[in-house]
Design a protein that fits this description.
The complex is a heterodimer of chains A (280) and B (291). Chain A has 280 residues and is mainly α. Chain A has 14 helices and no strands. Chain B is mainly α and 291 residues long. The mean pLDDT of chain B is 89. In chain B, α8 runs antiparallel to α9 (194-205) and α12 (243-253) packs antiparallel against α13 (257-281). The chains are: A mainly alpha (280), B mainly alpha (291). At the A-B interface, α1, α4, α6, α7 and α9 of A face α1, α3, α4, α5 and α7 of B.
Chain lengths: 280, 291
């Protein structure tokens, strides 16, 4: 009897929170299918019941407004994709070195180096942003893909190193040692033996870095103004230009949250099992 | 074993971090103690001592931004922790649909904060948003969620809670799963009630995860700008202006780089000081959990 009540309360809370989580997303998606009047005349909730959905804003952003939209979308893909690739590559290389070699840089041993790398993530980005802005201005990297990619590699490296160090310390070393005995170099052992073994974790790391780079706002705001603008900047700019035109910006925002949602669903196994090492 | 090979593996990471984190950090430090000028297009920094910091001490707008940031951080992180703990406890039970709930609950933290801010801006709109519509239907008066100076900050906190409670759930759930079931069974066999098991067994064993979750989330929360930028732009007046937003406005909109750097650096000290204080306050809990 008591456990039945407990189960009921559990479900009540879980379902309530599910509604709280999904409602704003639902609101944004439905708004992108509303006529102007349905937006202006107070809130309308259910499609086909409260209002008749229209696809004209979606058609518009893919036709008339295509040029404005496509550049930031492609920019986001390029910048997030390339930076995450290098962040996971360099990150796993460092993680490999830190789990296989014994280092000593002055007073720092392996754990200190790992902590130093990870702690870089804690620094508020506004501190580096002002200086990076000036550095890029001098080197002509403002508003370029290359500049933003560099910044995002640095932004995601601490996370990539942390996650990969955890994975790499768990896999048995006997296989790569066998390869080394057979005359493979360290680089061969890493790229031919270790990387294929940790490929699932490596792709999870890549996707997580991708989401963070895709969503990043402050650096993109400061370092780009037209050619290299990313999706979050497009949304913010459109919002300030158009004010209350909710439908267009809702469509853009929906487009901006689709890749992260797809990635979350794809990575659910990792989240459920626990991707982040705690108390180790 | 050849040590240079290992160093080679580390080199790209160290180089990138030196170039894009450590160097800019020192550069900003120099700006905070100097004056930035452009002579014929060439950038010049002249050190002028602590003049910028003197200005900071008498800058009411800086103190306002500091208080706003501290309020947002403490309030959001506190609520996120309590909610995250409750939801993680429930998700840790053996129930049907567990995977569905876990994945759904994680969604908000994966979405672009700019999109989240925009969603909530629409939701909280005075006349066209569902929040005031519900209040009206229930017969209450409407609230100026983003326009009332007494409320706007809480709307920002609300949005932050919606987006970042998932992070707490993620870490606390991992912590809960690490607690051996035998401990809990043993306590129950000894006749402890549900509450007692929670207070004397689960909560102390969860301390490392709790500390990690609160610490990591606070450090992130101190950086808040995107949600505020799109929801209120720091207004009405200055009631929602965070330190990062103020540093950005001064440094890159008013283009007073030296003073912008000073404000940003003050944020660094705030984060550093809060971290040290936090580690000092939790030293007892951390020692207990080690034993």
């Amino acid at each position: 009897m008591k456990s039945k009540l407990l189960n009921f309360i559990t479900y009540l809370i879980l379902v309530t929170w599910t509604v709280i989580v999904l409602f704003p997303i639902f609101w944004m998606v439905t708004t992108s299918f509303k006529e102007k009047l349905d937006v202006f005349l107070g809130p309308k909730y259910l499609p086909w019941v409260d209002f008749k959905p229209t696809t004209k804003w979606w058609v518009r952003i893919f036709t008339i407004e295509r040029r404005e939209l496509i550049t930031p979308f492609v920019n986001s893909l390029i910048v997030a994709g390339i930076s995450s690739f290098f962040a996971s590559l360099f990150g796993s290389m460092s993680a490999y070195a830190l789990t296989r070699y014994k280092f000593r840089f002055g007073p720092m041993n392996n754990d200190d180096i790992l902590l130093w790398i990870v702690s870089q993530r804690m620094m508020p980005p506004i501190i580096t942003a002002l200086a990076v802005f000036l550095m890029f201005r001098v080197t002509n990297l403002l508003d370029t893909h290359f500049g933003l990619i560099l910044v995002y590699i640095a932004f995601n490296l601490p996370l990539a190193v942390w996650i990969m160090a955890n994975f790499l310390s768990q896999i048995p070393q006997s296989i790569e040692e066998a390869a080394l005995v057979d005359g493979a170099s360290r680089a061969q052992a890493f790229f031919r033996v270790v990387v294929p073994m940790v490929l699932p974790s490596l792709s999870a790391t890549f996707l997580l870095c991708f989401v963070f780079a895709w969503n990043e706002f402050l650096m993109a705001l400061i370092l780009t103004y037209s050619r290299a603008q990313t999706m979050p900047i497009l949304i913010a700019m459109q919002h300030f230009q158009r004010g209350p035109q909710w439908w267009d910006i809702s469509a853009l925002s929906t487009l901006a949250v689709l890749p992260p949602i797809a990635i979350t669903l794809g990575l659910q196994r990792y989240f459920v099992k626990g991707l982040i090492p705690i108390g180790k | 074993m050849a040590q240079w090979q290992g160093r080679l593996f580390l080199t790209p990471t160290i180089l990138i971090l030196l170039l894009l984190t450590i160097f800019p950090f020192l550069f900003t430090l120099a700006m905070a103690f100097g004056k930035v000028s452009f002579e014929g297009g060439a950038l010049k920094i002249t050190l002028i001592g602590i003049k910028n910091w003197g200005r900071l001490v008498y800058d009411a707008r800086f103190w306002n931004a500091l208080v706003v940031t501290l309020k947002i951080v403490s309030l959001s992180v506190f609520c996120e922790y309590l909610l995250g703990l409750l939801l993680a406890m429930l998700l840790n039970r053996r129930i049907k649909g567990r995977t569905f709930f876990r994945v759904t609950f994680l969604l908000p933290m994966m979405l672009a904060p700019i999109a989240v801010g925009y969603m909530w801006r629409m939701m909280l709109n005075d006349t066209r948003g569902p929040f005031n519509d519900f209040l009206r239907r229930l017969g209450f008066g409407t609230v100026g969620w983003l326009s009332d100076p007494n409320v706007a900050m809480y709307s920002i906190v609300l949005t932050d809670i919606w987006q970042w409670t998932p992070f707490m759930i993620l870490i606390l759930l991992a912590g809960l799963q690490g607690i051996p079931r035998d401990y809990i069974e043993a306590a129950k066999v000894d006749g402890a009630s549900g509450w007692k098991v929670f207070i004397y067994v689960i909560f102390p064993l969860l301390a490392p995860a709790s500390i990690a979750a609160i610490f990591l989330r606070s450090v992130e929360a101190f950086k808040i700008i995107d949600i505020i930028y799109i929801m209120t732009g720091g207004g009405p007046g200055l009631v929602t202006e965070s330190l990062t937003l103020y540093g950005y406005s001064v440094g890159l909109r008013a283009f007073d780089l030296a003073y912008g750097a000073t404000i940003s650096f003050s944020l660094f000290f705030v984060v550093l000081f809060s971290s040290v204080l936090f580690f000092f306050l939790t030293r007892k809990a951390r020692r207990i959990s080690l034993e």
